Amino acid sequence: MANERQPVPVRTMLVAIALVVATYLTLRAIVLLAHIETLLVVAAFFAVVLTPAVDLVRRKLHVSRGLSTAIVFIVGLAVLTGLLYAFIRPLVDEASEFVDNFPTYVSEAREGRGPAGDLVKRYNLDERLRDAQADIENSLGNAGGGALKVAGKVLGGVASTLTILVLSLMMVLYGPDILKSALNILEPTKRQRVRAVASDCARALTGYVMGNLLISLIAGTVTFVALLIFGVPFAAVLALWTAFADLIPLVGATLGAIPTIGVAFLHSTTAGIGMLVFYVIYQQFENHVLQVVIMSKTVQINQLFVLVSVLIGVELLGILGALLAIPAAGVLQVIVRDLWDHRAGKFKDEPTIGADEIPVSEVDGEKTAGPNEDGQNKGGQNEDDTPDRPVAVSE
């Protein structure tokens, strides 16, 4: 009969089962290797951001790629170590001073003298402390286990940081060779397109990161000046906190402002009100002037897309996801735009930057130079040298 079903071939059934099993195993592997995948993504992010600095040092000092990479990483680690030291040292000093003076605080609290005694009398804390004495003793007895957990997390964080550092170093050193080998597999027309898209993504990513760092530096600097004007203690620490927090999209400025304003109010009401007014004015300046001026030639993303990207990033990776969300969204925007343009028959002769698609040559101020009499380009690079990052050039 015409409507009689034909039996499914055994080979087709086996192929379908194999595809289902392979898909399951792949998804399972992705879940199990999530931590390693996170390290690879973060390392690739830093490698792309640091590559322009490595290229610049290589051109200016005329040294090998390995030496220029070492210089950039050593300088970067030195700067980061200095910032962390400047941030942590005052906190450690204050904690040490508190521990040294703790017996005095306890004595004053019991005798009703000093600031601690005033607080105890005002809020009847002596009775509450007696009622909670058993809970406090139990908490102190269990503090050892909590300390071990914290120590384990700290060691895990240090190991992850070292892993990211090594992976980033290897990617900067060997990434261009790997990329060149991967591009050689493609046919010339596709190779040209992939190079252009990769260069677009790298420039958008690097431009956003550099712009964000500049805005954070400005935020920390003006905050430091404002804190000095109002005489707020720990001005350097609070300014560094503001700069670090400002790196986080959308909510970073608020996270940086809340503790700073709180410390200012503890110092004096005038300082607190002054810092509150300062942050309100500065936020308007940052959002409507700095963001527009600094980010205009990098990646421009719709604010709704930014919010969705940050929410997804926070859900996946927490604070780290929030930091990587907008750069990742910028890369995705470049790829989607290329697919759309390719589908519409629009082709670019060279990579562009930003939503306005400004050609790279207009931003750099010069076109790619041709060979001179010595067989070298004007930048000092031989014709046979492979660029350190993907660029859109004719095959």
Description:
It is found in: Cell membrane. Keywords: Cell membrane, Membrane, Transmembrane, Transmembrane helix, Transport. There is one protein chain. Helix content is 78%, strand content 1%. It has 395 residues and is an all-alpha fold. It has a domain of 180 residues. The protein has a two-stranded antiparallel sheet with strand order 1-2. The longest helix has 47 residues. It is globular, with a radius of gyration of 28 Å.
Give the biggest sheet.
2 strands, antiparallel
Please tally the helical runs, counting DSSP H or I stretches of 4 or more residues: 14
Overall SS class: mainly alpha
Mean pLDDT across all amino acids: 77
N-to-C SSE series? HHHHHHHHHHHHHEEH
Strand content: under 5%
Distance between the termini: 59 Å
Gyration radius from CA atoms, angstroms: 28 Å
Strand arrangement within the widest β-sheet reads 1-2
What is the strand and helix layout of this fold?
Elements: H1 10-32, H2 34-61, H3 65-111, H4 114-123, H5 125-131, H6 133-141, H7 143-185, H8 188-230, H9 235-245, H10 252-267, H11 269-295, H12 303-317, H13 319-343, E1 352-353, E2 358-359, H14 360-364
Antiparallel strand pairs: 1-2
Helix pairs in contact: 2-3, 2-7, 2-8, 3-4, 3-9, 8-9, 8-11, 8-13, 9-10, 10-11, 12-13
Features of the shown structure:
single chain; 395 residues; mainly alpha; two-stranded antiparallel ribbon; 14 helices; disordered C terminus
